[in-house]
Write a structure and sequence with these properties.
509 residues, alpha/beta, Aspartate Aminotransferase, domain 1, Aspartate Aminotransferase, domain 2, 2 domains, seven-stranded mixed β-sheet, four-stranded antiparallel β-sheet, 36% helix, globular
Length: 509
Amino acid sequence: MARFRVTGTGVMARMLRQQCVRYQTTRVRSICTSPTCHQASSTAPPFQDEPLGPQMISGLTLPGPKVKQGLEKLDRVYDTCSSTLLVDYDKSYGNYLVDADGNRYLDMFAQIASIPLGYNYPRLVQAAQSGEMVRAIVSRPALGSFPPTDYADLLASGILKAAPMGLDRVFTATAGSDANETAYKAACIWKGTQERGGRDFSHEELQSVMENQAPGAKNYSILSFIKGFHGRLFGSLSTTRSKPIHKLDIPAFDWPVAPFPELKYPLHEHETENRTEEERCLRETEAAIDAAKSPVAAIVVEPVQSEGGDNHATPFFFQGLRALAKRKNVLMIVDEVQTGVGATGKMWAHQHWDLETPPDMVTFSKKAQAAGFYYGNEALRPDKAYRQFNTWMGDPVRALLFRAIYQDIERDGLIDNTAKVGEYIFEHLESLVARFPQLMQNLRGKGCGTFIAWDSPRRDDILALAKTKGVFMGGCGAAAIRLRPMLIFQQHHADIFLSVLEDVLKELS
């Protein structure tokens, strides 16, 4: 196995060289000695033979020839406008992603925050080879009409076992946008049922709805926030406000929008200004509800506005939002598609808020590898068939994967690990901010696990140069760099990342 050669003379580089020596001398090898074999024994820790670091092909300009050729071939039959790499998933392993040319990157982006346990995770491979999985793949059920005999047990042992406190029911879906849209539908059905006072649909409602007219077609709305992102389907796209490119030419609902707090960092140095800003946003949210052209059925909010620039708010804001929703008799939907499943140092990011009552619905996807929304109120379950329905209504394959993921998160204490590694990264990033203030600004995410970001006027240059050195990060918003490593990310991975980032900042200074 090729060794990782550490370059640079800074403190982080020296720490990394020491760490690599310790890691090389203490790691336990797998019973499989082939360099391409990653099979672990049932008792061995996963990724014991993970590469020691990135490895870039000398003299190769990115993208390399095989990546370019592969993307050109694919582009003839498939849209590659947004493709940044052509990945060899057979060779990708653990925290490392390998491209078609053989370049190996430390993956700090994890497929847009959606890989929980690394590439080719041995225990997920075992789950994928189980009889349950084979049956679910070969005989995929239309869950709404023909659920399998063991679906209740599967949900109870996985998706519902991971449920946020107070939310003991779930509607399963296929993707994050789908999860949000079905939550929106649940909110509108709930509001319509309230307004009818429990009576059945009238003849006029049944007739008018077929022409998309009132009173059958309700004119309800979902309030979202400036710079929020909730998906790209028609309903979810109307609540997405992060980038114009997502929405151009697409018809949209005229739904209300409110400002999300624009905080100053470090938070502890700007408590007074930030409290004033959050109070302002709460007042404007209430005003937006009152002035909405269409009655608001629900508020949807992200714990961290991930695509819109990794924008944070304090628990005070979210507590106020919860109280406001209850006072106005609208539902509160927390979109945990990107923040959920451990990345913030808690299973669900809204657990950081210490709410007196849980949100009405929490949507999930990405790291769960499944999708849907949790809820607790029985009134959010439709009272008639086919009101919340599609052919698949989720997928037992994904439910099985989430069960295996959650079991390993619990078994290996990966959420606590993420919290500790996040503290370690943040502490060292603070020192880099002090040294390179012109390149690193508004560092945020303290106490939020590895869900860390900062702004830079040279964001794209930093991302591109780090990539040539074998570290793959993501950007968001206008100038933000965001970290989205996997839950198996360890301190020695952090040292590699910090060493590379230090070298990049030096070169760009």
